[in-house]
Amino acid sequence: MKQPLKFSELVAVGLMLFALFFGAGNMIFPPALGQGAGSDIWIALFGFIVSGVGLPLLGVIVIALRGGDLNELAGHIHPIFALVFGSIIYLCLGVFVSVPRTATVAYEMAVAPFLSESLANQSMLLVAFSFMYFILTFYLALNPSKLIDRIGKLLTPILLSIIVIIVIKALMTPMGEFGEATEAYASPLFKGFIDGYFTLDGLAALVFGNVVIVSLRERGITNQKSIAKITIFAAFIAAAGLLVVYVALAFLGASSVSLGMGANGGVILTNVVNHLFGNVGLMLLGVAIACACLTTSVGIVAACGTFFSTRVFPNASYKQVVLVFCMAAFFVANIGLTQLNAMALPILIAIYPIGIVLIMLSLVEHYVRVPVSVYVCGMIGAFFISIFDAVKSANFSIGKAESLLANIPLFDVGMGWLVPAIIGMIIGYMLSVMKKTA
């Protein structure tokens, strides 16, 4: 029987999970939140931490307790739902959002700042960079059993060290006072919560939890209870790392108003680091971004390869699926970051509430039996409202429906799906009781 992991190995697993979570979006969204929220930063940051740290933590815990399989987790509701919802999550992460974004952000923050403006805007340079980027992603993702050594023990400490250096310098030489909250943060708590969506970690937790479990099994650990304990331990390490880094990056953003309001988190970070360190700082930032992007890219592609080669296309090999995902992500990445985010936003707004309902009810299910009708009705309630939010985010009119939906609690702050989801769960429970007594 495989001997228990040493404490240093447990920490390495946690660092690997942290590195998988902490990608391009995680690096750029907290500074934008900090600058936008201004004096209300701590309220907004609390909302961000709930969705950006709390949900991923619960997601990994649920996966660990339920055996590490998203298909099994969603299959509890219905096999077709499991296949469709699982495929949407993996496609969103691997093709339409996360992985292409890692390549584009890595280029724009680690390469473009060191080029002339005319040269940086040459599309062929992005093509060449992303081509090499995905060759490296493909190579690293071919053997997921080595993810712990390659990511947890090497790239993550580099990333954390660079962030620590930047924050310490910012504390030693303060940039200025916090500004006033912008109009977007009129409701800082809920705005911060929704900002946490765009890290994608709430959904990614249903994927990354399985990456950890597969890695542990590859290392010879087969006892399910041991796997669950190690995975949950790793989840808390990753969550603690995310919490500390988010607070630090949000602080950098909030204290940088004197440098000018940045169009996005990437610009804000670039301004901060350039102010504190000059060109050397920009190089440090570029290394940090490259590490964060690459680790996330490798983890997601590896998870996509496992899912699609076993659940969707069983006749395809893991290597073939990984190759296809790298090729698809390469083409999508060259659309451009702005267009890519605009394309992905409606999809995320539509499916995120479904993921939240699934995570929360699955956690309850571990202790108390939850009827399938509660899952189904709760998700229907959430999706019915979130689909309207998705249509609005795509700049399409929803006509008279908007005035009706405005009467739903929290709809004006982007959380209108919450009450219908709860009502749906109650209806689902009543249906299950009626079915038993019939």
Question: How would you characterize the overall build of this protein?
Answer:
The protein has 19 helices and no strands. It has helices at 7-21, 24-37, 41-65, 70-75, 79-96, 98-110, 117-120, 123-141, 147-172, 188-195, 201-218, 224-254, 265-277, 279-312, 318-333, 337-365, 372-393, 401-405, 418-437. The protein folds into 2 domains: 7-334, Orthogonal Bundle (Hydantoin permease); 338-438, no CATH class. With 438 residues, the chain is mainly α. α2 (24-37) packs across α12 and α3 (41-65) packs across α16 (337-365).
Fraction of residues in H or I helices = over 70%
Summarize the helix and strand pattern as letters: HHHHHHHHHHHHHHHHHHH
Average pLDDT for all residues: 84
Strand % is under 5%
Number of domains: 2
Please, how many helices?
19
| Quaternary organisation of the protein chains | single chain
Strands, total number? 0
Radius of gyration: 21 Å
Report the sheet with the most strands, covering strand number, pairing sense and barrel closure.
none
CATH architecture of the largest domain: Orthogonal Bundle
**Large-scale geometry:** globular
Low-confidence stretches: none
State the CATH topology of the largest domain.
Hydantoin permease
